[in-house]
Amino acid sequence: MGVTLFVDFDGTITERDLLDRIAQTFGDPDVYRDVDARLDEGTMTLHEVLRREFEPVRAPLDDVVAWVLEHATIRPGFTELVEHAEERGWRVVVLSSGFGELIGPVLDRAGLGRLELLSNAVDPDPEGWRVRFRDDRPCPVCGEPCKRATVVAEADEGLRVYIGDGFSDRCGALASDLVFARRRLAAYLTETGAPYLPFEDFHGVAGEVERFAVPGEPSNRSGR
Questions:
Q1: Strand, helix or coil for residue 45
Q2: b/e burial code for range 68-88 (CB count within 10 A of at least 16 → b)
Q3: For residues 20 and 36, what is the distance between their CA atoms, to the nearest angstrom?
Q4: Which of 61, 94, 114, 217 is deepest in the core (most CB within 10 A)?
Q5: Residues 75-105: pLDDT tens digits?
Q6: For the purposes of burial, counting CB atoms within 10 Å of the CB of 192, is it exposed (0-12), middle (13-18) or buried (19 or more)?
Q7: What is the pLDDT of residue 157?
Q8: Nearest-5° angle of CA 155, CA 15, CA 31?
Q9: pLDDT-derived band of residue 156, with 50, 70 and 90 as boundaries?
Q10: What is the pLDDT of residue 218?
Q11: How confident is the model at residue 220 (pLDDT cuts 50, 70, 90)?
């Protein structure tokens, strides 16, 4: 059975969610607080929130990349998980609602630039950053653009493993067979009664995937 690991970036691969901090540090903290509250209330979509959060950012991209490289730390065990996955022939996809222009340099520095990266992009216009979304099509399940379509399309056959921590991971996680969750994603899955395994680092993730992928074991895929 083929195995695909979909791994969120901000707050999952990295120990902190730097995308939120960038919006506050280089943008407008008041705008950030307002739209983040609207996301929690369900009155704005994630794409609308990202557009609004980064419109006030006017810093040069190189300055923000330098800040990210200064502050980004890779969560313990991730490099080892990638190496194990490569040995086993598992596919690892970094699936992020963040921006490839900021993610790529962090992965490169960690020696992980070879990983597949599916993310949004940004046009760092000096009059306000403009987000370029990788997929703007509404999801038939949650009603807004999300990661589900990518999870389904990229791993239509085989085992789907999802590892994430936030709002953007919800629908993709629900379309997966095995989910590792923390923070807001874990709270959401607990509230909805969906199964998941908690994690704080990546040590032990490979072992859980191995156990789940044993031939003959039933799949938890629900198609939700």
A1: coil
A2: beeebebbebbeebbebbeee
A3: 9
A4: 94
A5: 999 999 999 999 999 999 999 999 999 999 9
A6: exposed
A7: 83
A8: 95
A9: confident
A10: 42
A11: very low
In this structure, what token pair is assigned to residue 110? Answer: 């960690």
CA distance 176 to 212: 13
Q: DSSP assignment of 67-136, as one string?
A: HHHHH--BPTTHHHHHHHHHHHT-EEEEEEEEEHHHHHHHHHHTT-TTSEEEEEEEE--TT--EEE-S--
Opening angle at CA 53, ends 17 and 69, nearest 5 = 40
What whole-number distance in Å separates Cα of residue 41 and Cα of residue 46?
Answer: 11
Q: How deeply is 197 buried, as exposed, middle or buried, from its count of CB atoms within 10 A (0-12, 13-18, 19+)?
A: middle
Is the dihedral angle over the CA atoms 52, 53, 58, 63 positive or is it negative?
negative
Amino acid letter, residue 10 = D
R_g of the chain, CA atoms, integer Å:
17
Tell me: the pLDDT tens digits for 160-196? 999 999 999 999 999 999 999 999 999 999 999 999 9
Cα 63 to Cα 56, 68, 164, 206, 212: the distances in Å are 15, 9, 27, 36, 43
Residue with tokens 């407008």: 28
Q: How far is CA 80 from the centre of its chain?
A: 19
